[in-house]
Amino acid sequence: QLVHFSGLVELKLLKTLCLSKNNIESVFPLTKQQRNQMTRSQYSQAGQSKTDSYLIKETESIMPNLEVLHLGSNKIKDMSLLQLHRFPSLRSVFLESNDIMKVDGLDGCSNLRHLVLDKNRIKEEF
Length: 126
Description:
Strand order of the largest sheet: 1-2-3-4
Largest sheet: 4 strands, parallel
Helix content: under 10%
Order of helices and strands: EHHEEE
Strand content: 5-15%
Number of strands: 4
Number of helices: 2
């Protein structure tokens, strides 16, 4: 029943993390502003600038050895809240069966080789 996994980011040597079938929305607990942003319709967010406060979080790396992240069947709506750019060794991300409508938040994920997004609500091409 995890909503976030901030308590696990101190596991520096971890290479694979499987947290499928939880209630995860983000890595860290959402602020009130972030939660309000998520409740707006996707159409009202379309014109939003990428400088929203939750996208300008610390740039410090977390879980530096993590290569595989399984987050299928959670409650992820906004991929940018996962801050995937902060996982420098990340190679495979499994996000199947979530509520993702838009593919974003992948800037800086230069080692990413596998991205699984089936059974989501993605409507726009990237």
